[in-house]
Amino acid sequence: MWKLLKIELYKIFSRPRTFISFGAVALLVGIIQFGLKLDGNTYIDFMLRDVSVSLDIEGKVLNGYLICYIILQLLLVHVPLLITIISGDLISGEANMGTLRLLLTKPVSRTEVILAKFGAATIYTLILLVWMAILALFLSLVIFGNGDMLNLKAEYIVQLKSTDVFWRYLAAFGFAAIAMVTVAAIGFFLSIFAENSIGPIVTTMSIIIAFTILSTLDIPVFNVIKPFLFTTHMIGWKGFFDVKVTTDNVAIIGSVQNLDRILIAAGVLILHIIGLLIASIAVFKRKDILS
Amino acid sequence: MKKMMRQWLCVGLLVSVAGISPVAANAQDVTVLVQKVKAKLEKVSNYVAEGKMKTDVAFIKAPAGKVKIYYKQPNKFKLKRDGGISLLPKGGVSVNMNSLLTDNNYMAIDAGEALLDGKKVRVVKLLPTSENSDVVLTTLYIDEPNLLIKKASTTTRENGTFEMAMEYGKFASYALPDKVIFAFNTKDYKLPKGITMEFDTGDKSKDGKMKNKKGRVEIQYTSYVINKGIPDSEFL
Amino acid sequence: MQQIIKVTGLSKNFNKIQAVNQLSFSVNQGDVYGFLGQNGAGKSTTIRMLLTLITPSAGHIDMFGLDLNKHRKEILRQVGAVIEKPDVYKYLTAIENLKLFMKISGGAMLGRPQLLEMLELVGLQERADGAVKTFSQGMKQRLGVAIALIHDPQLVILDEPTNGLDPQGIADIRNLILRLSRTMSKTVLVSSHLLSEIELIANRLLIIDKGAKMVEGYAKELFDPSNTIIEVETLDNAKSTTAIQQSDWKQHLQPSRNGAIVLKMDKNQIPSFNEALTAMHVPVVSLVPRLSLEDYFLQVTTRNQHVEAFKD
Fold first, then answer.
1. What's the confidence (pLDDT) of residue B27?
2. Which residue from A minimizes the CA distance to C92?
3. Yes or no, beta carbons of A107 and C55 under 8 Å apart
4. In angstroms, rounded to a whole number, what is the distance separating the alpha carbons of residues A167 and A240?
5. Which of B15, C81, C258, C308 could lock onto C157 through a cystine, CB 3.0 to 4.6 A?
């Protein structure tokens, strides 16, 4: 199966559109960094307007760590699209091209084909995230420098010491990897039912957008279904940027406020991935290849 | 008889004089007391202090951090958080006593005595004489024998009331505290969830707990370098 | 003789449509097996079931003496297939495509020289490093054949291999099939609706219609030489037809379209008839035995159920 995996990776990275994804990430991140470099303080002033009524905030608030957080938050919808473009094309694209029938007449099982293709999609996703981490985190630190990070939540602000941030980003990117692989799994699963990649891509993005809206709107009737939406759990990476406090309300360095919740969210996403993969294998094994 | 009447008159005069002079004497006392306290404070023309600062505001989770504090007469004050961000109460309030007594534009009024942490202190109210002053009233709780301000409560026009409580130790002779606890009013903080896109952890809203609470900043001083000179560039 | 393919009672339903109906046939080692049927008869569906692209609704397939369900990988290592219009990865070159499929075909790993040899076999060696997106359909077809042969399979299955090809391309494929059979000793199953081509290459035939077998057998046994159709072209077909009608050969005349002269006779009578035409001073331009297979095919299938507009 490793041979098949290498072949699938070769196919993905032989296509120009794959590199368009990397270019798109670079462009999006660059635009945000450029904008915040020019006018980031206005943005910060707006976010801190309530706080600055009673508190003086001194120090480098607009630093690389905060920039990275803003970038990650803004790209919640964009990066899934770039992942879906590849994963949603893996089966349907081959059906459309006419190569699927050729592939499946070879002495490889359909299960191996699914695992290899999904494995390749996962590796692509991880590489894209590493690329994003390099640009969003490392490049932001180079441009904007180091410093304590202020996490402006809805009801309170978390101040993280500069020495207490980097490992959180490693954990956050790790979590984001699970979240994005979930997106890849959805696109991949839908790809099995189509002979054109537009359908799976549009459907996956529609699901993500609709579920994200339901997950983030604070309306009581939606609160019932929120725990069952994978998008609710996808933003679990943010949980790494909240800390526990002592009885004196002093932040405990190195702690995570709701680590158990984050782990549950990760578990839910992993279950989604496994479930979708099993479903993909089951459907694909029974599928008549008519393309 | 005449001799006895003269004695009673003297006693009566003495008693009456003794009765009037405490009021006038007290007014003079507190002014003098405050002047003495100020004089003690003014012995320190500048200092660089190191310490650890804890911020206790309902809507802020901040770690304790090392701070460096610079002071230079008459009223230059700077708090630098060791390489990070500092969140301090607004109003340009510098966490030190010297700022309160930098000029003489106040009237000191004796407000009697009180017990603070089991010790007797003199309560003095300072009323600014200038109408333009932001400070409306300052109440000092003074350890008279040691000429140390144990607590100060200041009411301002713009930023409400804040309190400073001081604990003294090895630097008491310089009127420099080991520990300062600064309490102040805070406005409510809230950002729309649609902007922050929270990770829902199921924690109940802390709405009730966050509102109308006082914030506290506590600085535990570990060292002072006194009267060694500080360039003005440190205060920029 | 080993049976390379044995199909028993094969059926496939798509919802309520019976695409293949209780089909049974066998392909022997060394056969060039012609698989004939009109468009929509079920040929491609059958071939896709042989290649495990479609799951049968009923029936059994054995290949190389092994159950296809249980020994799929082992069997497919010995099979090379070209399915309808083959397509390859357009963003790769010809040799990159060949290399990619070589790796998963279960055969030996070949170096560039051997890959180029394979491309030479199908006439693509000049375009080895050419991007496939620039290839014509015929070139893609040939590349598809190369991919099917890259692992030196025992059985080659070709589904409509001449679709979209020009006459030269069709001839090339025909010659390739003959070479596969005669020189490389491979068993070939080729499906087509181009009856003329199948007649020239196949030794055994299966004709299906509406998913069911109509007839199976050796080509030479299936066609009755006594019913050879010939078409005569003269300088004046009308006058020539009149002359034939007045001769002893008139009972051999067949109804025809567009004024062509068509007769049916025993193959052995053709020389005599030729002499008779000369004696009648019929100015013969050509005398061609028409494809008897086509007639046979038309006989056994239900082509007469045409749409009104297409009837004679």
1. 58
2. A14
3. no
4. 9
5. C81
DSSP classification of residue A105: T
Break chain B into its structural domains and give their ranges: 23-107+156-201+215-229
Q: Per the CB < 8 Å rule, is A250 touching B54?
A: yes
In this predicted model, what pLDDT tens digit does every residue of C90-125 receive, in sequence order? 999 999 999 999 999 988 888 999 999 999 888 889
Q: Is the CB of B229 inside 8 Å of chain A's CB atoms?
A: no
Could you give the CA distance from residue A228 to residue A224 in angstroms, rounded to a whole number?
A: 9
Residue to substitute from C76, C104, C141, interface A, most A β-carbons within 10 A: C104
| 3 state DSSP class of B125 | strand
Tens-place pLDDT, residues B166-206: 999 999 998 899 999 988 877 777 777 666 667 766 655 54
Q: What is the dihedral of CA B85, B91, B92, B98, to 10 degrees?
A: -120
Cβ contact (<8 Å) for A159 and B63?
A: yes
One-letter amino acid at A40 equals: G
Sign of CA dihedral A63, A64, A68, A69: negative
Q: pLDDT by residue (tens digit) across C29-62?
A: 999 999 988 888 899 999 999 999 999 999 999 9
Contact B90 A56 (CB under 8 A): yes
Rounded percentage of chain A residues whose pLDDT exceeds 90: 73
* Residue A88 in domain: yes
Write down the H helix ranges in chain B: 2-42, 193-196, 207-210
Q: From the DSSP assignment, how many helices (H) and strands (E) are in chain A?
A: 14, 4
Looking at the complex, report in whole angstroms how far the Cα of residue A104 sits from the nearest Cα belonging to chain C. Answer: 7
Question: Token pair for residue B207?
Answer: 């709405």
Residue contacts between A and B (CB atoms, under 8 Å)? 158
Cα–Cα distance, A241 to A167 (Å, whole number): 10
Any CB–CB contact under 8 A between B54 and chain A?
Answer: yes
The chain C residues in contact with chain A (CB within 8 A) are 14, 48, 51-55, 72-77, 79, 81, 83, 85-92, 96, 100-101, 103-106, 144, 147
pLDDT at position B6 over 90: no
Which candidate from A3, A15, A97 shows the least CB-CB separation from C104?
A: A3
Report how many domains make up chain A: 1
Q: Give dist(CA C281, CA A288) in Å, integer.
A: 62
Domain presence at residue A267: yes
Q: What ipTM was predicted for this assembly?
A: 0.83
CB A148 within 8 A of CB A162: yes
Residues 49-68 of A with CB under 8 A from B: 50-61
Asked if A267 and A182 count as a contact pair (C-beta separation under 8 A), the reply is no
- For residue B92, list chain A residues with Cβ-Cβ distance below 8 A: 56
List the strands of the sheet with B60-63, edge to edge. Answer: A149-152, A157-160, B60-63, A250-251
Kindly tell me if the per-residue pLDDT of B210 is higher than 60.
no
Summarised one tens digit per residue, pLDDT across range B211-236 is 556 788 889 999 999 999 888 888 87
- Segments in chain A below pLDDT 70: 76-77
B229 three-state secondary structure:
coil
pLDDT at B209 over 70: no
Say what the pLDDT of residue C299 is: 59
CA distance A26 to chain C (A): 24
Which ranges in chain A belong to alpha helices (H)?
Answer: 2-13, 16-47, 51-54, 64-74, 78-87, 92-97, 99-103, 110-133, 140-144, 166-191, 198-216, 220-223, 230-234, 259-286
Q: Which candidate in C11, C49, C50, C51 is best for mutational testing of the A interface (most A CBs within 10 A)?
A: C51
Class of domain B23-107+156-201+215-229: mainly beta
Answer yes or no: do A56 and B207 touch at CB < 8 A.
no
- Other Cβ atoms less than 10 A from the Cβ of A255: the count is 14
CB spacing of B63 vs A164 below 8 angstroms: yes
Reported pTM: 0.80
* Interface test mutation site (partner A, options B95, B196, B200, max chain A beta carbons within 10 A): B200
